[in-house]
Amino acid sequence: MQSEIIGRLQNIFDDVFLEPVVVTPQLSAHEVEEWDSLIQISLLVSIEKAFGIRFRVGEVEATRNVGELADLIARRLENS
Asked: Per residue in 10-61, pLDDT tens?
């Protein structure tokens, strides 16, 4: 499930970022120069829309990388 979600996230990252970003489970915001707080908001809105989910306050901030974000998305999808 994680790899399928990461594949879908790649499309979202391609739409949000100006420079190409290769999405891997280990990727974190610190590794992408362009990834600031405004990009973070755009990403989260796009992810919620694409997956038909809503994140709770503080939930995403607790994730350390894209793999953990994908796991969070999977949990949201299971509970919806």
From this structure: 999 999 999 999 999 999 999 999 999 999 999 999 999 999 999 998 999 9
The closest of 79, 80, 78, 68 to 9, measured between CA atoms, is 68
Radius of gyration of the chain (CA): 12
DSSP letter for 80, please: -
pTM over 0.85: yes
CATH number for the segment(s) 2-78: 1.10.1200.10
Domain ranges of the chain: 2-78
**What's the rounded Cα separation, in Å, for the pair 6 and 25?**
7
Our measurement of the distance from residue 2's CA atom to the centroid of its chain's CA atoms, rounded to an integer in Å, reads 12
CA 45/CA 18 separation, integer angstroms? 17
